[in-house]
Amino acid sequence: MASQFASNSLLVLGAYGIIGFLYLVVIPLFLYFWMNIRWNFMNKFERLCLYGLVFLFFPWFDFICSFFKPKNSWARRDLAIDSH
């Protein structure tokens, strides 16, 4: 009886760990890189869906985006051009 409880507990903890890892790491990274690739080519429905997913997976976007900064940002180029 005790070993069955322990094995069930490990299964539940493992399932929570996998779901948490997907929610906090894998899906936000996928969305971030997808948006970097498709940013200038998205239609309005794709953009709306992505914004909804970003809102859903928001907790780690602040953390992840602080490490992955875009290299070719149009906003940065415009600021660099305006400052000269």
Compact description:
About 75% of the residues lie in helices and about 0% in strands. The protein is built from 4 helices and no strands.
Describe this structure in words.
This is NAD(P)H-quinone oxidoreductase subunit L. With 84 residues, this protein is mostly helical. It has one domain (2-83). It is 77% helix and 0% strand. The protein has 4 helices and no strands. It has helices spanning 2-38, 44-56, 61-65, 74-83. The protein is elongated. The chain starts with a helix and ends with a helix.
Poorly predicted ranges: none
Largest sheet: none
Oligomer: single chain
Structural class: mainly alpha
Number of strands: 0
SS element count, helices: 4
Q: How many structural units, i.e. domains?
A: 1
Based on Cα principal axes, name the global outline: elongated
Element pattern in H and E: HHHH
Q: What is the CA–CA distance across the termini? A: 75 Å
Which percent bin holds the helix content?
A: over 70%
Q: Nearest-angstrom radius of gyration? A: 19 Å
Please outline the helices and strands.
Layout: H1 2-38, H2 44-56, H3 61-65, H4 74-83
Membrane topology: Multi-pass membrane protein
Subunit structure: NDH-1 can be composed of about 15 different subunits; different subcomplexes with different compositions have been identified which probably have different functions.
EC number: 7.1.1.-
Features:
84 residues, mainly alpha, thylakoid, plastoquinone, EC 7.1.1.-, NAD(P)H-quinone oxidoreductase subunit L
